[in-house]
Amino acid sequence: MSSHLYAYGVVEAEDFELEMEGVEGEGPAETVTYRSLSAVVTPIDEMDVERTDENTRAHDEVLRAVMTEGAGRTVVPMQFGMTFKSARPLKSVMRGGRRAFRKALMDVDGAVELGVKVVADEDSTLDRETVGADVSERLVALSDGEAENDLYSDRLVFNRSYLVDTDEQDAFGDAVSDLEAEYPDAIVQYTGPWAPYNFVDVEIGAK
Amino acid sequence: MFLLDDILLWPIRNVVDVLHSLAVQEMYDPESIQSDIKETQLLYELGELDDAEYEERRARLEAELDAAERARERLSDKVVVQR
C-alpha cells in the first residue's frame, strides 16, 4: 500500500496530474497545495528511498516534465529522497518554508538549468584555467547565473551549470555548439534542461 | 646497544607508518572512488567505453567503494583522514 508521499519540488499553486512513473515506478505525479504553493508528489511505500540510477533518473524526469509540460512551469526542486508520511507534514513544511520557497520561485522564475562540460581528448594540452575563463565569458552573458561543479576527472577541464531564461535557451544552445568548433580536441557535453538545483537554496527541516 | 638500536629505528618506523597510512587513505578513500565512478559514467556517455567495458569498470569500482566504506568504518578510530 502506497500511503506515503515522495516530493520532487514546489511550483506556484496549481492542480495538475502527470501520467508518468516516478521514483520506485509509482505514479501518477500529483500536487499537494498549501496556499500559494503546490508540491509535486508521487505515492511511495517506504520512507527510505534507495538512491539507485533508476530512482535518481525518475526524480529528474518528473521535474523535467513539470517544467516542460503545457506552457511550462517554474519549479523549485527538492533534493533526492524527500519523503513524507502524508500530506499533512508536507503542508507544514511548505508553511514553514513558504518565504524561502517564494523567494526561490522568484529567483529562478522562467528559467531552467543547463549543464556544460568540456572533456579534453586524451592527448590534448588544454588547461582548465584558459578554457574556464574563455567558456565562462561566452556563456555568462547569455545566462542569469553560473555555478561551478566538481572537476572529478583529469580530462574534465570544464564543468559548470547555468541558469538560463527559457527565452534565451536557443541562443545559449548556439553558443554551446560554437564551443565544439572552438575546441576541436575536446568533446562538449551539453545537458538539460534540469530543474535549477544549483540555483535554489531552500533548507528543508523536519519531515 | 639496545638503546642505540631503538634510536636508530625510530625514524624508519615513522616513515613506514606514514607511508602505510597514506596508502590506506588512498586505497580506502570513498570520495576518490566516487570520482572514478563519475569519470567512468562520463566516458561511457561520450562513447569512449562500450557497454561491456562500462559494466565491468562500474562493477569493480562499486565493489571497491563498498570495501572502502566498510574499511573506513573499521579503521575510523585509527586513521585520521586529512583532505
Overview of this protein structure:
- The complex is a heterodimer of chains A (207) and B (83).
- Chain A is of the alpha+beta class and 207 residues long.
- Chain A contains five helices and nine strands.
- Chain A folds into two domains: 105 residues, no CATH class; 84 residues, Alpha-Beta Plaits (2-Layer Sandwich).
- Helices cover 30% and strands 29% of the residues of chain A.
- With 83 residues, chain B is mainly α.
- Chain B has a domain of 52 residues.
- Chain B is built from three helices and no strands.
- Chain A: Belongs to the gas vesicle GvpF/GvpL family.
- Chain A: It holds the Pfam family GvpL_GvpF.
Average predicted confidence as pLDDT of chain A: 93
H/E topology pattern of chain A: EEEHEEHHEHEEHE
Number of strands of chain B: 0
- Taking pLDDT < 50 over at least 5 consecutive residues as the criterion, the unreliable ranges of chain B are none
Q: Which outline of chain A best applies?
A: elongated
- Measured by DSSP, the beta-strand proportion of chain A falls in 25-35%
Largest sheet of chain B: none
Unreliable spans of chain A are none
Give a short account of the largest sheet of chain A: 5 strands, antiparallel
Count of domain modules of chain A: 2
Which helices and strands appear, and what pairs or packs with what?
The complex is a heterodimer of chains A (207) and B (83).
Chain A: E1 4-12, E2 30-34, E3 37-44, H1 53-68, E4 76-77, E5 83-84, H2 87-96, H3 98-107, E6 111-120, H4 128-140, E7 145-148, E8 156-165, H5 169-182, E9 186-194
Chain B: H1 2-27, H2 30-45, H3 51-75
Helix pairs in contact in B: 2-3
